[in-house]
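Let's study my pick:
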Amino acid sequence: MECRFCKTPLQHVFIDLVNSPASNSFLTAEQLNEPETFYPLKVFTCHACFLVQVDEYKKSDAIFDGDYAYFSSFSTSWLAHARQYVSRMTERFGLGSDSQVIEIASNDGYLLQYFVEKNIPVLGIEPTTNTAAVAIEKNIPTLTRFFGVKLARELIAQGTKADLLLGNNVLAHVPAIVDFVAGMKIILKPTGVITMEFPHLLQLVENNQFDTIYHEHFSYLSFQTVRQIFESQGLVLFDVEELRTHGGSLRIYARHREDESQPVSPSVAVLLRKETDTGLVDLRYYEGFQQKALRVKLELTDFLIKQKRAGKTVVAYGAAAKGNTLLNYCGIKNDLIEFVVDANPAKQHKFLPASHIPVVQETALRARKPDFVLILPWNLRDEIMQQLAYIREWGGQFVVPIPSLTTL
């Protein structure tokens, strides 16, 4: 296996989470009696460019084609984040009715709908047909395609180029990351701006977020490495922001190398120095992560076994991809967690891959009155605890597994 950016042979294992099914491959009741396909989940660090990456064990078109279980609009905090982004970008870059906004991985139109409200022309690009269909129902023009150089050339041949080109939580999802960035260079207007948001590798390591590793995430990104990739395609990162979303993310701003209308912000040098000082460009920084994950595994399994012996009931909230990584790495099944609640109807009445824990509606919480609710999407902890505050009525408690097991 070689690095998907610089082609250096990969020799350094960052973490090995053994084997796991694809994180969003939810099962029907009928499928519980059928064999499941497991894929290796071993992550490598490139010693040349420090791109942390998993091999494409399951092809991206198999993961994202057809029905997809994740709909962005089910998180109220994420919708608020999207609305705030639209207001800021509209004001900062003077977007209006003569502008063109293009979002890659536009999902169900969760973000572009706010540009539409401002009468700013939009185009969504989304490979999953079921989420794209929801966006189209909202009158958001959407192409059901994968993005790269090929599609970019088709769009510019039709006269479509972007004043603002954006993508939230997609950069880590593309196996051909160089082709993806090259496509963005092609479709961007001469004075256009790119913004991309992605979970920050520094936060993953510092806060033991190993559960954000799954087959959909082909890359785990630092600012240093992303800067190299963009520069290789003639794009300059002129600004960067650290965000709280998804446990700690970056929002990068890029432009053509030839376009000097956007000066490089001091924030670029500040973050580069922060990553260097933290150790992200030193292989020693990546050592020991396996042991940090193992500690969480032991904490969680010990907790669940203790509650089982005491006759307590534990359920989970949020059938998130990160939750499936956590449960499968820890070897947890439906004998220790009775069910998981999720607001997304596409996941309800199905079962989590490998663990076979049933996914149910929120009404099951009041009916069962569990002693503990394990919050799997810990990045939405505050939102979920506010939503489910009523479990305190019967003495229920919340449990958060990452970065270490905490009862709240």
In short: DSSP finds 13 helices and 17 strands in the chain. The mean pLDDT is 93. The radius of gyration is 21 Å.
